[in-house]
Amino acid sequence: MVLAGAGGAVGAQLAFRLAAEGTEQRMIVPGRGQEPSLPDGSPLPDSETIVLGHTPGRPELATALEGAETLVIAGAAHRDPDPFALIRAAAELGVGRILHLSHIGASEQAVAMAARRQWLVEQEVRASGATWTILQCSILFGALVRSVHDDVLRAPAGHGRAAAVSNADVADAVTAVLLDERVHVHDRVTYRITGPTALSGPEIAAALSVTIGRVVRYEPVAARDLYSTPIPWVRDLDAWISCCAAVDAGVYEQVSDAVPALAGRPARAFWRWLDDYPVEWLHLGDSRDSGTAM
């Protein structure tokens, strides 16, 4: 199995799950040191690492995909290999199965820029000739936390709600699809992967307030104002604004039962994820032990 995007938020968790199941995997990462590893720094069992940049050549792609029966595209960040190149090389080399992590709302006229690009990738996957499964994922919980600075969640998302999801739940759903012994049950199926509740900005802020022991507030802003006072932690302002606009338009509001159906357990609530993964929000600081009142 070839896992592209193995260094990403979902890809890394997926790599650990596959290793725990004894699955042989070839992990594709954009640079050395970005591959998942055991706590002592040793490689995951039954794994090898291939380093590919965003525009790999045909020989590099052939090496990465040689002998593979399954290709998982778990990341399409700017440093990850071009997914179109991966899919076309997989078709040429006879890779029989492709599993692609896409975005909810993917369509030709999608509100979010990332969803428009993912729609194009989806079309490439469907036309590849391989057996395929597509998992359209909601916004990850980690993205919500990273949008908080100076105790303010400031975003042009209006009063929209998003059924955001844990990256661990996405990884569990993907693992269930990949290792399902029922032949062909997931062939040519598109799943929507969401959390259990559609959260508003104030609800996200309230959950974070309880967790970090300080008041976090949600501040809706107009997109046009962000161009005059840009947000320094956002790499691609246009893409981020379009994602927030999709939240405001209700694109991410619908809750799906795919995680319970695939993983065999309920999807994690946001507050539960905050409890389970403190490393994800420690950069915000925690005043609960210092006696600071909310």
TrEMBL record:
Pfam families: NAD_binding_10 (PF13460). SUPFAM superfamilies: NAD(P)-binding Rossmann-fold domains. Residues 5-180 form the NAD(P)-binding domain. InterPro entries: Ergot_Alk_Oxidoreductase (IPR051604), NAD(P)-bd_dom (IPR016040), NAD(P)-bd_dom_sf (IPR036291). It comes from the Bacteria. This is NAD(P)-binding domain-containing protein.
